Amino acid sequence: MLNDTVLKASDLNKSFSGIVAAKDINVSINQGEIVGIIGANGAGKTVFVNMITGYLKPTSGKIEFLGEDITGIEPRNATHIGLCRSFQISQVFMTMSVKQNLMIAMSLSKKSGKALLDPIADEEISKECDKILELYKIMDQSNNIVSTLSQGIRKLLDIAMAVVGNPKVILLDEPTSGVSVEEKFGIMDIVIAALKQTETSVLFVEHDMEIVERYVDRVIAFYQGEIICDAPPKVALSDKKVIEYVLGH
Amino acid sequence: MFTGIFKDTSVRILITFMIVLCVLSSLVLPDWMQNNFMYGLSRGLAILGLMLLWRTNLVSFGHALYYGFGAYAVALCQKYFGITDILLRFAIAVIAAGLLGFCLGFILRKYREIFFAMLSLAFSMVLYGLLAKAEFLGSTDGMSISPSTLLGMELTRQYLFYLITFFVICAAISIQAYLRSTLGHLTTAIQDNEIRVEYLGYSVQKAIHIKYVMSACLAGGAGGLMAASLGQVDPDSMVNWNVSGELVFITIMSGWGNILAPFIGAIIFEFIRTYAFEWAPQAWAAIVGGTLLAIIFFFPGGIWSVIEKVFNYGKKKNVK
Amino acid sequence: MQFWATVLLDGLTYASYLFIVSLGLTIIFGVMKILNVAHGSFYAWGAYTAAFAIGFITDNELSEALFLPAILISAILVGVVLGYVIERFILRKMYNQDIHLIVLATFGVFLIFEDLIIITFGVDPYLPYQPAMMLGWVDIVGLNRGVYQLTLILLASIVAFACWYGLTKTKWGKLLQSVIYDREISVAMGIDVTKVYVVTFIGGAILGALGGAYVAPTTSVSPGFAIDLVVLSFAVVVIGGMGSIPGALIGSLIVGILRAFAVHQAPILELFVVFAVMAIVLIIRPEGLFAPPKPRKI
To answer: Of B51, B166, C194, C280, which one has the greatest count of Cβ atoms within 10 A?
Structure first.
């Protein structure tokens, strides 16, 4: 079970008016795997993530998800088939409460016209949302308006909103950026534990090597649009090229 | 979609308000007041439509397009098909405006902010340009509308008023059902964060398009009822850009906290108009302009926010 | 041939006055990001004040040489007074507010000034035709046209040249351009934005009033005659690109000539063509034909 490939990118290239942002990228991700993507600023990490979730279309190459070609898919369709993402700067509905945010995400994940037209205060959906709030340990913030909450809570909500439809793969874009040092391990513990329960594959872009070392099964390092290393964290973080080009010492 | 809608506080308040209005105007109040209520409720439908758009931070400076389109649809159906039935008139106005909104929506749903406002303005002025110059549509004089009938019977103004109230209640309840649904909540969500809505798996453009068509239907219905109750349609008081401006003005004045707000706002607008004409006919526009500035500066939440404060109704409303 | 000459000449005349008015509107938008509906008030007040001044000169049998100075002074007076009052007491309190609210506030101001006109000047139309009479008529390419109307083209050219010179050759112009390009950076560099705003708004107001004042002798000045103009100048500005000065020039030419063509060929389409073009431009190129350059922000 654990070795089934869920996501496969082959020979991905992307250039912006002549400037190469991604070059011959080949990656495959197995179910339940937790993969860290590292690289200096501008190395092509975010371009890679954006191509996979359909925000950018690759110049050439192919992306397969559960064996199906999804190259150039619309972001919302990526969500429908079970390929979700969170954001570097949490993208949540600031004027609403935590619960309302999640309820919207939950009803949309039902993909049925009826769920769209039914009152949002539906009991069943409310119960399902409570489960996720518990899982992500933000139950106590449930009725607070998001704009009054800390970055850490917003990050958790952001991720919680991405997983309501039980995706196969989730891309986390710098889950701990903007979060205080005291909060960061707490947040990652909660997130990784929750995602392991559902056997969701996780791809996360991260600058913080402490986080990478502690949580991932595998590291992919980017430099100038290319993958320079793809190995377990212990091997990758002591790789010469990685040390020179990514860690910068 | 409509399950338990009559348990909704806003709906209960709306129905109570409308019934009180009907009883008062038929028993106690003078006729001219009833006319004001009638015009206010009709126009209020268009304001309700603008309120929907406003909640997504879209302001249409050309909503008179649908208002006028509905009104002219009623006039043309009378001229060419002899239709005077009020039910048909309302339906025709709503459907005609809805279809137009559906078509233009494919373009407008991509636009935001000032570009949305300007493109709406352009579309409405295209219609105005045609109506103001077209001889067979009466050019700037417009066309007159004969009194409405109901299923072949003549309709007194009293009953026309009851029917308009009924239409308004139906429309407002549908809108409330929409607003409390997930789709309706997307309204505020889109204003907050479009990217997130896309990544939650729903098309922002589609959500805006749906809302835009609803808003067009409401404005069209308003135009149709207004035509029926005024007995007259003409481009300058129904399609020109300052009519659109007036509609947006009433929207701001009303506030957007509740489905009842547009109707209260529109009725108050009618009363301001009547009194201004009576006491200071030269300064009617200045009074409207002054009110607009006063609202913007001193009551940014509109009349509804004042009502909310007075009754402290706001506390109960948001907690579900 | 004759037909095209007529269209061209009438279109050019019409474009000239649209240009003067729209230039003010577009500069205000470019600098302050305000879509100023009250621009119509400057136009109307300019026209009324000029009409009143011309009437005063004629009634008291003063020299005809005073007509032109009277028109210019009316425009400046109206621009400075109304521009200052509106900027200082309304708009200054609204910067950083939602753009729609600002449009609505200027709409409110427009309504108030519409009625102030009626209260000040009455409801009867003014016909200040004397300056146009004074200059007489002339035959060009077989067309009989008032000389005064033709001087409008000259005035527009002067305004266009002055504007180009002022913006590119003077220190003030460069300041203005930097504010148009990026307001935040300009503030950071120590430009007094409040001052720039007042001057811009008054400048734009004078242009609006000048359009009205100069057109007054060729038309009947009556209540509500600015209503069409507001939306026409919006069309010009949108077609050319909101905030773009060359855009205002091209926009006025397009609208002026199209309208003249429609008037002579298919009068029913007179307004339709203008707004159809506005809609098409917005659909194809929402920023307008001459979109001002935007700073890239990361």
So the answer is: B51
A and C adjacent (3 or more CB pairs under 8 angstroms) = no
A118/B contact by beta carbon, under 8 A: yes
Contact residues, A window 44-63, toward B, CB-based 8 Å cutoff: 53
pTM of the model: 0.87
Q: Does the interface predicted TM-score (ipTM) exceed 0.95?
A: no
**Chain B residues 210-239 with a CB less than 8 Å from chain C:** none
Residues 5-34 of A with CB under 8 A from B: none
Report how far residue B165's alpha carbon sits from residue B12's, in angstroms, rounded to the nearest whole number: 15
Closest partner residue to B289 (CB to CB) among C111, C227, C272 is C111
Q: How many helices (DSSP H) and strands (DSSP E) are in chain A?
A: 10, 10
Which one of A53, A91, A96 has the shortest CB-CB distance to B188?
A96
Number of compact structural domains in chain C: 1
Instruction: Please spell the DSSP secondary structure of B112-175, one letter per residue.
Output: -HHHHHHHHHHHHHHHHHHHHH-GGGTGGG-EE-PPPEETTEE--HHHHHHHHHHHHHHHHHHH
Read off the pLDDT of residues A188-213 as tens digits, 9 standing for 90 and up.
Answer: 888 888 888 888 888 888 888 888 88
* Residue C187 belongs to domain with CATH number: 1.10.3470
Check if A147 contacts B (Cβ < 8 Å): no
Q: Which residue blocks in chain B are alpha helix, DSSP H? A: 9-27, 31-54, 64-81, 86-108, 113-133, 157-180, 182-192, 194-199, 204-230, 235-238, 241-254, 261-279, 284-298, 302-311, 314-318
Q: Topology of A5-247 in CATH?
A: Rossmann fold (3.40.50)
Q: Do B121 and C231 touch (CB under 8 A)?
A: yes
Q: Where are the domains of chain A?
A: 5-247
Could you tell me the two tokens for B247?
A: 């509609």
Query: Long-range contacts: C189-196, Cβ < 8 Å, 24+?
Result: C194/C92, C196/C31
Q: For B13-41, how does the pLDDT look when each residue is reduced to its tens digit (9 = 90+)?
A: 888 888 898 888 888 888 788 888 999 99
Nearest chain B residue (CA) to A99: B320
CA distance B286 to B280: 10
Touching pair B, C by Cβ (3+ pairs < 8 Å): yes
Strand duo A5-16 + A19-30: pairing: antiparallel
Q: Specify the range with the lowest mean pLDDT, choosing from B262-276, C101-115, C137-151, C227-241.
A: C137-151
Kindly state whether A107 is in contact with chain B, defined as any CB-CB distance less than 8 angstroms. yes
Asked if A84 is an interface residue toward chain B (Cβ–Cβ < 8 A), one would say yes
Look at A87 and B195 and tell me if their CB atoms are within 8 Å: yes
Domain that holds residue C261: 2-284
Of C222, C236, C257, nearest to C47 (Cα)? Answer: C222
Residue C269 maps to a domain: yes
Q: Measuring CA to CA, which residue among B233, B224, B69 is closest to residue B144?
A: B233
pLDDT digit string, tens, across residues C191-227: 888 888 899 999 999 999 999 999 888 888 888 888 8
Candidates B108, B66, B61, B130; CA nearest to C282 is B108
Does residue B285 belong to the interface with chain C, where contact is any CB pair within 8 Å? yes
Q: Do B285 and C115 touch (CB under 8 A)?
A: yes
How many CB atoms sit inside 10 A of residue A189's CB?
13
Q: Is residue A24 classed as helix, strand or coil in its secondary structure?
A: strand
> In terms of DSSP H, where are the helices of B255-283?
261-279
Among the partner-chain residues B181, B201, B202, the one whose CB lies closest to the CB of A118 is B181
Cβ contact, residue pair A120, B319, below 8 Å: no
CB-count exposure of residue C124 (10 Å: 0-12, 13-18, 19+): exposed
Contact (CB<8Å) B118/C110: no
Q: Does C297 map to a domain?
A: no
